[in-house]
Amino acid sequence: MPSLQNLAGNWGASDPPLQWPYQTTPAEPDRHACRNCGKTFAYSYNMVRHRRQCEGTFHLVCGVCGKKFHRRDVYAVHLNTVHGLQDDKRRSRADTGDE
């Protein structure tokens, strides 16, 4: 049976460190720009999230108090802290049995 050292190879101090398989820094930083204010983002999903707020687009409305939200995570926190409820989509993922 091969030893762990043989499986790992002969890595020295000059070898690059192991990295997560996904690139965490963008190859082309700040390539996505908001069409309203010009602010740039490395990732498109950050720009889309920003643009909703910049344009004043609200795609979520609290059914209890009518407050509007740009982001689902903020809406879910509001439901839980203010009204003591769970977001329906999060609740349906958490339910495992009774229907």
From TrEMBL:
Keyword Thylakoid: no
Keywords: Metal-binding, Zinc, Zinc-finger
Alphabetical list of PROSITE patterns matching this protein: ZINC_FINGER_C2H2_1, ZINC_FINGER_C2H2_2
Alphabetized GO MF terms: zinc ion binding
Keyword check for DNA-binding: no
Gene3D superfamilies: Classic Zinc Finger
Domain (C2H2-type): residue spans on this chain: 32-59, 60-88
Pfam families: zf-C2H2
Segments of this protein annotated with the region Disordered: 1-24
Highest taxon above the source species: Eukaryota
UniProt xrefs under InterPro entries: Znf_C2H2_sf, Znf_C2H2_type
Protein name (database record): C2H2-type domain-containing protein
